[in-house]
Design brief:
Largest sheet: 5 strands, antiparallel
Keywords: Flavoprotein, FMN, NAD, NADP, Oxidoreductase
Structural class: alpha+beta
Family: Belongs to the nitroreductase family.
GO molecular function, one term: oxidoreductase activity
CATH superfamily: NADH Oxidase
CATH class: Alpha Beta
EC number: 1.-.-.-
Radius of gyration: 20 Å
Distance between the termini: 19 Å
CATH topology: NADH Oxidase
Order of helices and strands: EHEHEHHEHEHEEEE
Number of helices: 6
Cofactor: FMN
Length: 220
């Protein structure tokens, strides 16, 4: 496809060669692909691997060192409670939801060996640091997790949905004023995957400021 960069079904790169860390980093970025939770299975990361994945988040940019985000692990023995929160969230939105629809909502809680909720605090600390900066920091932390999971050979996905804003989910996770449930992150072994999608070429999203002429197309 013209103007786009094709992404093949890539495997995670091998250990970084000392002579070409930039090439290894580029290969890792290109290997990351969203694998939906329904396509992730056991085994998930072991304790040491999960520690490495979570530690990667700390290297995200964080204006003011607020640590405005946190991750909540949802272990297997808590999935039933999450399933009921999903069903209740559906009923909040649609009191006429059928039993079948509620069961479909519950089923989402049981996918992927590792499931995390990402929470961002829009009020904590310096009020001069805007919510958008805090969310951006959280997004960088999530990307660090996804890339580390990819480097370890796992598939991963970032997912959202209307349930994140529900009273049921806020109550289950004891979210405080100013806290927002941003997304879920799932990690596990890839059971199947779709072909990688074509990625946009830099010229499609990069421009150059030319005084008096505004932003012009970037010519690399």
């Amino acid at each position: 496809m013209a103007g786009r960069v094709d992404e093949a079904m890539r495997e995670p790169p091998a250990a970084a060669p000392a002579a070409a860390p930039a090439d290894w980093a580029a290969a890792l970025l290109q290997a990351r692909q969203t694998i939906l939770p329904k396509r992730l299975g056991a085994p998930g990361p072991d304790a040491a691997q999960l520690q490495a994945i979570m530690a990667a988040a700390a290297h995200a940019p964080d204006h003011g060192c607020l640590l405005p985000w946190r991750f909540v692990i949802v272990p297997r023995d808590a999935r039933a409670a999450l399933a009921e929160a999903f069903a209740q969230a559906l009923r909040e939105r649609d009191p006429q939801a059928s039993p079948g629809q509620q069961e479909q909502a519950r089923e989402k809680a049981y996918r992927a060996p590792v499931l995390l909720l990402v929470v961002v605090d829009e009020l904590r600390g310096d009020p001069g640091i805007a919510p958008c900066e805090r969310i951006l920091s959280a997004g960088c932390a999530v990307q660090n997790l996804l890339l580390t999971a990819t480097a370890l050979g796992f598939g991963s996905a970032l997912t959202s949905g209307k349930a994140l804003q529900s009273r049921a989910l806020r109550t289950l996770f004891a979210l405080q004023e100013g806290e927002r449930a941003l997304c879920f992150v799932s990690v596990g072994t890839v059971l199947s995957r779709k072909p990688g999608r074509a990625r946009p070429a830099p010229a499609q999203y990069v421009g150059t400021l030319v005084p008096g002429r505004g932003v012009q197309p970037w010519k690399d």
